[in-house]
Amino acid sequence: MKALILVGGYGTRLRPLTLSVPKPLVDFCNKPILLHQVEALVKAGVDHVVLAVSYMSELLEREMRIQEQRLGIRISLSHEKEPLGTAGPLALARELLNIDNEPFFVLNSDVICDFPFKDLLQFHRNHGKEGTIVVTRVEEPSKYGVVVFETESGRIHRFVEKPQVFVSNKINAGIYIFNPSMLSRIQLRPTSIEKEIFPVMAEEGHLYAMELQGFWMDIGQPKDFLTGMCMYLQSVRQHAPERLRTGPGFLGNVVVDPTAQIGENCTIGPNVTIGAGVVVEDGVRIKRCTVMKGARVRSHSWLESCIVGWSSSVGQWVRMENVTVLGEDVIVNDELYLNGANVLPHKSINESVPEPRIIM
Amino acid sequence: MLKAVILIGGPQKGTRFRPLSFEVPKPLFPVAGVPMLQHHIEACAKVPNMKEILLIGFFQPNEELTRFLCNAQQEFKISIRYLQEYAALGTGGGIYHFRDQIVSGNPEAFFVLNADVCSAFPLAEMLSFQKEHGEPNSCVILGTTANRKQSMNYGCIVENEETNEVLHYVEKPSTFVSDIINCGIYLFNPDIFQHIGTVFQKNQQDMLLEEPTNGWHRAEAIRLEQDIFTALAGQGKLYVYKTLSFWSQIKSAGSAIYASRLYLNQYHTTHPERLALNKEGGPKISGNVYIHPTANIDPTAMLGPNVSIGTGVTIGAGVRVRESIILHGATLQDHCCVLNSIVGWDSTIGKWARVEGTPSDPNPNDPYAKIDSETLFREGKLTPSITILGCNVNIPCEVIILNSIVLPHKDLNRSFKNQIIL
């Protein structure tokens, strides 16, 4: 089976992290975002993953060669020379997706959830039509485009953009499965799959919706990245609690890489992921944060709702909060206060940032 | 023989020092570990031939003041008395009212010091200056150089550069007059009372021409600066001794931290025993730090520079304190961080909390810069200042209190920034 992942462009919304690595390789809960998706696809029987990218990155290519070996699958990069929207990349990769009569998966690369690929395939085979999209429930449907469908069969009636009157609380989760025949609907030009393709398919009775069980999050920006992390860790607690670090000094759902070192008298958690080789010195308090590979947090600091980028160093008695994001190799000097700071890579910070802003 | 008078003001004064002056009369607020006034008394007691120190003000005598006077007399082995004015009589009116007490015993001269200044108090230098430069019965003002802009917030002195005679004196001019400012420290001889008496009598005569309302009080309220110095300037009776040693006003609470720094620095020569050292099993000390012997400090804490820790303070593991005054009985729990703040008596700061202010230090690149007598609000917004926790304030764990003033006896339950919390 095959899958196409819509990776797209530079991942500007996830800067400053994406200034150092392509978005698919940004670590989410100690694993590159892309691998969460690829590994789930492999489990469902996918043996060929196509990445639709709009810019080429040697780092990404090299990493994909490694993953091909590790997972025993084929990974292709399909490079669009000009932006093709959300449908165009399917046309571009037509030859790769079309080689047999098997359905293929399509997903947005920003989405994190308990990927339901096996159930999706089963559901899709059962109704026998051209496409199925996964939908997820939201609290405020008026902010999104919602999907109106038959509860029993899943057959989609229509899509309503930002409904002012309640019609549905289910939105497109960015995860699809299609029969190859669907490719004939798409031409090689910039096209929106949501606005130009899906409404037609629904009209013809060829599009079905499957409701997602469990959490779902678009982690394309730092604030949502952290919310997605909390959801993911809660899901780990339900499905693989042995992966969580427990014991004195750990609260709630915490994942710590085995190579990380945690000092004395720290309180870590709830909702923290600590990457490989990270050093957390004595007396540190961390909650609702991601601390990436090779970073150091020095003693008595306090961190809440932050992303500490690769190999960054946070000084002693530092306070960081309110979605402060440190890019790669940032140094925060002792005793500073960072409130919602967005710090670009390789920067040394010597002054507090009392109000949210970007530090170039 | 000599005497000294310290003008300590009263409860209506020092409102810029709130909320700290709710708990203790401002002159007794600890600066560099000892009451503000003690620095004055110590300097006076050191002057040879000093026989008596008189405090003049309009505080009701209270236990704290009495205890302080009692202790100071014993420590400095000198007579110290408090003379209470019946009302606020001004800087000249107070000494005039108590002139009999001052001149009894026939001192040849006496110092007058304002309590709300911090200084190296070069009193001996002022005496020799008077002997060398002045006429026998002249008065001496201690002066220092300010920058042009800030000078206008002070009493400004124009001198004869050769003789140091004061040619002109003006209090807080609206345009630039001189960069030599009045330090609020004077050397007088008993003749000064004739000059004040002249003003008093003129005031009384003026009174008679008006309707009689509280006349006596109004005649006796006399300001040294506007009423006396302005008149004496250019008469060959008033001289300025300019000092290069440290000096600052202590008007706002923010300036108390700056004054503490100046005094702590002076301790290297005057009281090295008051400066904490890095010792095995003790906290890490950076720069000048005063720790009262009764304070209990975890060895993993890090203090300084410019930190004063009062009696019975408890400081937990991994606590950081810099540029701050911690008053007696306060508790700083593990890992908390206190920067540019005054932590009030018996207050508690929770684990990993951060209490931080913005220093109001003079521009370090301008040798003549003074601390700005800042206003609390500018354009309707609280200006960032040091953070002050009043007496018995509780700060919960893990919050931040930034640039805020918390009035006494408050239990906060969240973070606050740039606010006055009533």
From TrEMBL, chain A:
GO terms for biological process: GDP-mannose biosynthetic process. Residues 251-359 form the Mannose-1-phosphate guanyltransferase C-terminal domain. Gene3D superfamilies: Hexapeptide repeat proteins (2.160.10.10), Spore Coat Polysaccharide Biosynthesis Protein SpsA, Chain A (3.90.550.10). Residues 2-234 form the Nucleotidyl transferase domain. Its EC number is 2.7.7.13. Pathway: Nucleotide-sugar biosynthesis; GDP-alpha-D-mannose biosynthesis; GDP-alpha-D-mannose from alpha-D-mannose 1-phosphate (GTP route): step 1/1. SUPFAM superfamilies: Nucleotide-diphospho-sugar transferases. Keywords: GTP-binding, Nucleotide-binding, Nucleotidyltransferase, Transferase. Pfam families: GMPPB_C (PF25087), NTP_transferase (PF00483). PROSITE patterns: HEXAPEP_TRANSFERASES. InterPro entries: GMPPB_C (IPR056729), GMPPB_N (IPR045233), Hexapep_transf_CS (IPR018357), Mannose-1P_guanyltransferase (IPR050486), NTP_transferase_dom (IPR005835), Nucleotide-diphossugar_trans (IPR029044). It is an enzyme of class 2 (transferase). It comes from the Eukaryota. GO terms for molecular function: GTP binding; mannose-1-phosphate guanylyltransferase (GTP) activity. PANTHER family: SUGAR-1-PHOSPHATE GUANYL TRANSFERASE. Belongs to the transferase hexapeptide repeat family. This is mannose-1-phosphate guanylyltransferase. It comes from Scomber scombrus.
TrEMBL record, chain B:
One of its GO terms (molecular function) is nucleotidyltransferase activity. Residues 285-421 form the Mannose-1-phosphate guanyltransferase C-terminal domain. Pathway: Nucleotide-sugar biosynthesis; GDP-alpha-D-mannose biosynthesis; GDP-alpha-D-mannose from alpha-D-mannose 1-phosphate (GTP route): step 1/1. Residues 3-202 form the Nucleotidyl transferase domain. Transmembrane segments: none annotated. Belongs to the transferase hexapeptide repeat family. PANTHER family: SUGAR-1-PHOSPHATE GUANYL TRANSFERASE (PTHR22572). This is Mannose-1-phosphate guanyltransferase alpha-A. It comes from Scomber scombrus (Atlantic mackerel).
